[in-house]
Write a structure and sequence with these properties.
This protein is an alpha/beta fold. The chain has twelve helices and eight strands. The protein has an eight-stranded parallel sheet with strand order 1-2-3-4-5-6-7-8. The longest helix has 16 residues.
């Protein structure tokens, strides 16, 4: 068995936020939105680059990718400019995924603005759709199949932007069709296709859905967001899903993401990284480096922290 990975790490999915700005409605006092993790009250606090840097200290993280954090809808450029200021002041993040409403009347203009920002490598627009496997089987479709939304999506390739897709695994057949129709655009599946439980039936169906969407070569996936409501993050609970991701997609199409501070409700950053190191030691050193660093480097090209502070 290979040694535990001790090389550089890129965190391909994290947030930072200043709640004093009042730009995150879901994190406002008294706000409650449906969340797969249940009660998220513990993360209703500022989480700034200094907090993130403290969390990653000594873990091997050399660069990071910011994920849009449900900023006030339609105000994505303001979020990008805020994060860009953090980036220049602290080096966090190295690159970013921006909010973009692909079915908005001004989508063309907004995408052009975002693409002009060098740190923006991808956009995210959660597509809604079926809220259960049964609804998906009954024919409930997401925005991934909507003609107006797809017109916006079609513009991404021209701007060299990727698309980050956060949707439950039962909507991934829509994603497979989207990937086939727009082969020049990379789809990054966030949070491993949102595996919110570990019962055998769910895991089997999730694994099958991943196998189908992995047939599209322009799809990659994040090993992130794998916590389960009410359950601590453990190696035992996550070994199977993480190994499945690597075996289904190949290590060169899988990347580590912390989803901090959200997943910090379940485990500290060092514990998370050490858990991934233990799980990924089942694979050879090249595969480990791909998941921890090379895939995210290729997809997001984040500026390293050492370059930002030197």
């Amino acid at each position: 068995m290979p040694d535990l990975y001790d090389g550089p790490i890129i965190d391909a999915h994290h947030h930072v936020w200043d709640l004093g700005l009042g730009r995150h409605p879901w994190l406002a006092p008294g706000a409650r939105v449906a969340h797969r993790y249940g009660d998220y009250e513990p993360i209703k606090r500022d989480y700034l680059p200094a907090d993130y840097l403290r969390d990653i200290a000594g873990t091997g993280v050399v660069a990071s990718v910011y994920m849009e954090a449900e900023w006030v809808p339609g105000d994505g450029m303001a979020e990008v400019l805020t994060i860009e200021r953090y980036r220049e002041e602290s080096g966090v993040p190295g690159s970013m995924v921006a909010q973009a409403w692909l079915d908005a009347p001004d989508a063309a203009e907004r995408l052009a603005e975002l693409a002009a920002m060098p740190a923006v490598k991808s956009v995210r627009h959660k597509p809604g759709g079926a809220t259960s496997h049964a609804e998906a089987e009954a024919g409930v479709r997401s925005l991934l199949s909507d003609d107006s939304w797809r017109e916006g999506y079609a513009r991404l390739a021209g701007h060299g932007l990727h698309f980050d897709l956060q949707t439950p695994w039962w909507n991934l057949d829509d994603a497979h069709r989207l990937a086939a129709d727009f082969p020049e655009t990379t789809i990054v599946i966030d949070h491993a296709g949102v595996l919110a439980s570990r019962d055998d039936e769910t895991v089997t169906a999730w694994r099958a859905a991943l196998g189908r969407v992995a047939e599209a070569p322009n799809v990659v996936i994040k090993a992130s967001g794998l916590c389960v409501a009410g359950t601590p993050w453990t190696v035992e609970a996550n070994r199977g899903p993480i190994e499945d991701l690597v075996r289904i997609f190949g290590a060169e199409r899988v990347m580590f993401g912390s989803n901090f501070p959200v997943d910090g409700m379940f485990i500290d950053f060092r514990g998370l990284v050490d858990g991934y190191r233990e799980i990924l030691s089942a694979f050879d050193s090249d595969a480990q480096r791909a998941v921890f660093h090379d895939t995210a480097q290729r997809v997001y090209d984040p500026r390293p922290l050492i370059d930002a502070i030197s």
